[in-house]
Amino acid sequence: MNENARIAVVGATGLVGREVLSALFDQGIASERVSALASERSEALELEYGEDTLEVEKTTPEAFRGVGVALLATPASASRSLAQVAQAAGAWVVDVSPAFRADGNVPLVLPSFNPEVLGAAFKGRIISLPSAVSTALVSVLAPLHKSFGVVRAQVTAMMGVSSAGVGGVSELEKQTAGLLSGREPEPQTFPHRVGFNLVPQVGAFLANSPWTEEEAGWTLEAARLFGARGDTPVIAGTAVQVPTFHGHGLSLHVQLKAAVPVEQARAALKASSALKVLDAPAEKVYPMPMLVTADPTVHVGRLRTFPQAPEWLTLFAAVDNAGRGAALNLVEAGLKLLQRPA
Ligand SMILES: NC(=O)c1ccc[n+]([C@@H]2O[C@H](COP(=O)([O-])OP(=O)(O)OC[C@H]3O[C@@H](n4cnc5c(N)ncnc54)[C@H](OP(=O)(O)O)[C@@H]3O)[C@@H](O)[C@H]2O)c1
């Protein structure tokens, strides 16, 4: 494959798509190589690309002609068909939506965890990426699992409204302004008011199940990623929509195969290039969503155990959901696919 091939960013006007453009620019990709695609609604809109601007094109089959890799940052319903269209046009496809995460025929890749898949043989030309919470979970658990063995992990993910894209961000803006003026808002994107509230539901509930799609996704994606290498830690938890804009916070309880001193666990986390350890509670240093924006690492800290159950490690993590948890995975996987032979 030509390493100078064109790159189509589909969903370029969205929250993740704009981050993808900025990451491609940071990688030194010339604007001439990038197509910004979105729905008909955004046709001819102009988007910033460094000093240049890109004109948004409607996503049609012709728009994929001559494209080496298509980076899909679109809703799952759109990704399902657009991935096939881009693949039929001969492009590699990387999709960040939930559309293919459970599809055993489509490799699930977290570039910092299993990049070897991107150079290996697989059926078709589509790659699926895990969710932002799974990106953080697997990044934190991988070094612990490798060094000590993780039996299970329980997580509470506190998810900022940007998890629901530009619509989520504008809903919290409007709700907050309305509530401060004494008006009770009508929820649209979220099932309840999220302004000055916590909603223990992110996405829809699975049919006949007490678990949401978001929560079930963590268990399934961890099983696919760790499972390919042997035993899989059991991961389960609760997704909570919180009234912050950007970044997710994760409270984690991790059961290790045996008791491990906190210093050893901290050293294992520090050795991972995917992580930044912020763990000096006496100096008020710990992960927070406000610190993680535009940071390519997942932040982790507040490490502790308690004597009654010393094999359980408690910690807190934060991830830039649209950046590290989506756009950077798209760009890293996409650029690697372009290095494959045609
Ligand atoms: N936000 C996050 O933190 C995050 C993290 C991980 C994964 N994801 C996944 O990333 C995807 C994008 O999320 P987002 O937060 O960026 O959403 P968003 O802000 O709502 O953006 C959606 C984008 O998709 C485009 N689009 C919608 N339907 C389309 C169609 N039929 N053809 C072409 N383009 C279409 C929209 O174009 P218009 O502007 O023209 O409507 C827009 O550019 C979703 O699948 C989401 O699950 C998001």
TrEMBL record:
This is Aspartate-semialdehyde dehydrogenase. Belongs to the aspartate-semialdehyde dehydrogenase family. Residues 6-121 form the Semialdehyde dehydrogenase NAD-binding domain. Coiled coil: none annotated. NCBIfam families: PRK14874.1. SUPFAM superfamilies: Glyceraldehyde-3-phosphate dehydrogenase-like, C-terminal domain, NAD(P)-binding Rossmann-fold domains. One of its GO terms (molecular function) is aspartate-semialdehyde dehydrogenase activity. It comes from the Bacteria. Keywords: Oxidoreductase. It holds the Pfam family Semialdhyde_dhC. Its EC number is 1.2.1.11. InterPro entries: NAD(P)-bd_dom_sf (IPR036291), Semialdehyde_DH_NAD-bd (IPR000534), Semialdhyde_DH_dimer_dom (IPR012280). SMART domains: Semialdhyde_dh.
